[in-house]
């Protein structure tokens, strides 16, 4: 069966990871419109565990200066690769229209912490889909320098209490459209649970 077509289905399929942006800023009302939708994700006990730290372009430029000045950042993910990865990141950062650092507030109990992590990930997907529907490109990045505890603290998060979901880059896409990474057939990942032959 072909998947159904609908405005939502089209947005879900159209969302792509884009890593090159034109440098065009995103105005605050547009950012808030996206985050307003992100926060409608399901959340057990209505904990709303997500926290959004929004970096507009002046903050992105300031963060880039911090990443250069902080010697520990070039050591991640390991000292051999860190400097090259950081150089690539610094090249790309000025293109972003905005970056939203997303964290979730850690819970003491593992089961609740996992639920809260899942809820915050659902909020990120809402954000990505809302961005796609609004004509923005997006990129969910967990590159080591951006989720480093020092970077999170620089953004205003408390890494002792909050975990990193990732840095969500938003902006206008530059360059050739990204190739569409194929998905495996649904049947490879789907099991119908039979009612027969069960204890
Ligand atoms: C939690 C998470 C973290 C990700 N971090 C990175 C990253 O650090 N670098 C990267 O190139 N892509 C990252 N991605 C994006 C994936 O590479 C991308 O979703 C995948 O290639 C499928 O492409 P699509 O998003 O265009 O469907 C991340 C995705 C998720 C869900």
Features:
199 residues, NADH Oxidase, binds flavin mononucleotide, four-stranded antiparallel sheet, alpha+beta
Describe the structure.
With 199 residues, this protein is α+β, with helices and mostly antiparallel strands. It has one domain: NADH Oxidase (3-Layer(aba) Sandwich), CATH 3.40.109. The chain has 7 helices and 4 strands, in the order ααβααβαβααβ. It has helices at 7-14, 28-38, 57-69, 79-92, 110-133, 144-147, 149-154; strands at 50-55, 98-105, 137-141, 162-171. Strands 1-2-4-3 form a 4-stranded antiparallel β-sheet. α2 packs across α5. The longest helix has 24 residues, at 110-133. The structure holds flavin mononucleotide. The site of flavin mononucleotide has 8 residues, from β3.
Structural topology:
Layout (H helix, E strand, L loop, with lengths): L6 H8 L13 H11 L11 E6 L1 H13 L9 H14 L5 E8 L4 H24 L3 E5 L2 H4 L1 H6 L7 E10 L28
Antiparallel strand pairs: 1-2, 2-4, 3-4
Helix pairs in contact: 2-5
The structure holds flavin mononucleotide.
Could you give a quick summary of the protein structure above?
It is built from 7 helices and 4 strands. It has 199 residues and is α+β, with helices and mostly antiparallel strands.
